[in-house]
Amino acid sequence: MANPLSEALRDLAVGNRMCANEGVLDAFGHVSMRHPDNPNRYFLSRSRAPELVSPDDLIEYDLDSRPVREPGVPQYSERVIHGEIYKARPDVMSVCHHHAPAFMPLLATGTDYVPVFHLGSVGGVRPPFWDQHDEFGDTNMLVIKPEEGASLARALADYPMVLMRRHGVTAVGVSVKDCVFRCIYSTRNAEYQSQALAIGSAIASLSRGECDLAAKINTSTTGLTRAWEYWWMRLERAGLMVPAARAVAAAGKSRAAAGKAPARKAKAAKAAKKSRRR
Amino acid sequence: MANPLSEALRDLAVGNRMCANEGVLDAFGHVSMRHPDNPNRYFLSRSRAPELVSPDDLIEYDLDSRPVREPGVPQYSERVIHGEIYKARPDVMSVCHHHAPAFMPLLATGTDYVPVFHLGSVGGVRPPFWDQHDEFGDTNMLVIKPEEGASLARALADYPMVLMRRHGVTAVGVSVKDCVFRCIYSTRNAEYQSQALAIGSAIASLSRGECDLAAKINTSTTGLTRAWEYWWMRLERAGLMVPAARAVAAAGKSRAAAGKAPARKAKAAKAAKKSRRR
Amino acid sequence: MANPLSEALRDLAVGNRMCANEGVLDAFGHVSMRHPDNPNRYFLSRSRAPELVSPDDLIEYDLDSRPVREPGVPQYSERVIHGEIYKARPDVMSVCHHHAPAFMPLLATGTDYVPVFHLGSVGGVRPPFWDQHDEFGDTNMLVIKPEEGASLARALADYPMVLMRRHGVTAVGVSVKDCVFRCIYSTRNAEYQSQALAIGSAIASLSRGECDLAAKINTSTTGLTRAWEYWWMRLERAGLMVPAARAVAAAGKSRAAAGKAPARKAKAAKAAKKSRRR
Amino acid sequence: MANPLSEALRDLAVGNRMCANEGVLDAFGHVSMRHPDNPNRYFLSRSRAPELVSPDDLIEYDLDSRPVREPGVPQYSERVIHGEIYKARPDVMSVCHHHAPAFMPLLATGTDYVPVFHLGSVGGVRPPFWDQHDEFGDTNMLVIKPEEGASLARALADYPMVLMRRHGVTAVGVSVKDCVFRCIYSTRNAEYQSQALAIGSAIASLSRGECDLAAKINTSTTGLTRAWEYWWMRLERAGLMVPAARAVAAAGKSRAAAGKAPARKAKAAKAAKKSRRR
Question: ipTM higher than 0.90?
Fold first, then answer.
């Protein structure tokens, strides 16, 4: 029933909500996805907290971050982060810009990120820093101009993420799921790294060899599937699942099962619809 | 249907609850609002935990912090904080006094607050400290006397907030929403700053230029709207939304929609009413 | 309908649950109350996690910590803590023994507790330490023998609490509410103090004069009432309120109101009853 | 009605979920159990997040970690951790491999674990470290080959747990409950120890004598029962209880009670069944 694009858009909405539910995003930040059928387009929500994003909120952009159709709703001011990275990195299918609390001590002190456990390998060893002030002087710190986005994309180079001094992080992935996994586990790693630094001893990083091998295994095995199911279930329990996704899921069940759909599901869907209406 | 004042009072009650739900307030602390039509009056709840405040709890005060009508219920002992600041700062429309845990390490050590990321700009660069002991010697630390409130207001000067040694914080805003936004994001920033200091490196502050620009953009763009919607949704999910607000919201819907109001809403309203009755 | 003793026992059960819900107690620790009509008796739950304690679980003890009636259920092994303190301190009406996480860094390092904000005054300035090893050598660390309890009581002297090295804290109060308030806010203060120490600067304590004044105001004003209402509401929202208390509350309402008791209440009561049965 | 094996398998599923609900496990990690009737077999879930594990997910393995029957579903890649430990340690009836956040600062810095309070005694004094790199060079950090598992088991020796540098922890027990208790309280202790180290003073460990005595009392008294009831209740309140366990529990009640089974229970069971189906 559901076509591949609408399933992908649902996953993008779910990915936004997962990142919020797992402590990577709050009222700010966003996850985007390159159009699966058109590499010159990407999808990003209208301006709203990621925890509230539904497929209906997704706007289609060209790589200059201009909406393909006038959306008639407020848009994120920092969308050039996404467009400029999709231009520079043909391999990238998903981008997340966030301000995860766990990264802030590193960003405020200019401390290099290193993977302190195998799952932290998704962030790489010592990914690059970017400081907007270096090239653009005093700004409001937001990445709004195309040249600011392009500068950030150059700093990212071919790394899996770039740390933005006194601001946040931008991470990429070969899929929405890969990007979400990277954001969540690099955030966990950043937290562990800061706590390790707080106890004042020298900390051990994975070697580059270990990091390369661990980063590969994490995406090629069942680990990604397992984690996605777990975060999905947590979203559901928090009453935060994308309503459309729930409808799709319900449609996939036997008529009998659908007939006795749990009240919690209907309520969550209603609540989500209501918040969408606001 | 709802008049502007009653909507403003609802927002004030909601703002109290948001600050509680987002970790700024607990059993103590309070958010007030200047009367939108009478600059010589302000509204503040009767003495109760901010998470429980409803529009019915709001008391109207003159700027000497005397209730306009005898309320017949216990009042906050520290209300002069609000009155004296409204006297001294005609631009201020809302005041929040709080003891957010994240600020405590700064207040206990006398460490200057600096914005370590763009959203932390709402607190300003190195806002002033005030120590009640300097002028008043040993007290119970509460700001109860008019002269104590006036002293605090002098320390605040034209800053967005003032840090109270071994006590808490008082922040102001041009609206309830602005004040709530300032309290929540300065609290986030204080947390990040302490964690950064714990890892022992020199921390980077936004420059004054960056801070001024960032503080402006945060209130003039869609950011405030986005965050308010987010915190509102979180209040609702926590079962903490102001009952009156829910009623108003329901009234704004089509009759059909109102007819099938979710059970959760009714339950939450009932629960809130019950706790009000206690 | 409810007599004073049964109301007091309900408050004791509620106090146990509040301490659990506010992060002071987990599976272990306990709050007791001296018999309001007989200073030679006290009440303490049978052996179970404090979050599950109901009035039915409370056992009456003499001051040698022998049950007045054979309870026929497992008892806490550390009850001499309570009995020996009631013997030594006639002013004490309630005792709480806990292992709040926030205190652990102080207990593990032997760092003196100091009030870093006004509400922390409830713990006093530099309350005494007690180390079971000093007098009793290697033990299993539990305070089980009468002489161990008596030793702890001597260390407590006339302080509001005593810190037990590599173990936990024992705090007292003039009522269950006072004791609960002391435990919760001294725990908050311990958290702030540790975080302040982690950023490496000298920390400021309230002076003894400030501490005495602040500790007084906290119990003599509306603060205690306000906090109790807040914690009570949080217990209810967590589905953890004592069932008996709910029944009592329901009885106090009009018949009509009782007739439409919210489903959540019934469910919570049922859940609690079930867990009691286990 | 329920036979001993099916009760044991239910406890194993419950133990997985408890460790998840108490912050020891997230999407990764796993708890296993030796077959109670056949020391050459053990049970471990198919590859899925431990919070979702049901008795139906459990696979029976021989000690070479080969499934007794082809399961037809993805399996954990690190199951040799369990098999090799069961081979080397006949006294061990349960194994848990985890990456609890609280341990990460110790693992990243190579800091010895020491019990800083009596319940931390379950982890022992200075349990051994194991570094996969020492023997196997650059790997993806996962313990997949039998010789890697055997190496880890040798490092564990007769300790209650082994710390895996830049990876996680593996702990054992004489029963599932004992193992779960060890994992949860050693995790709490690790958190307190790190926080103590962050405030920069020398920290006090239990002496070996105290540790031995405390570790004994924790398993031989009512403490284990009390804690298990508490974690069970918390699982239920989180809507995470194993569905089969609920059915068993319901069966044990009177028909009348079963007739008015709370809606929450049915809903949770339905939700769990649904997630199982995914």
Answer: no
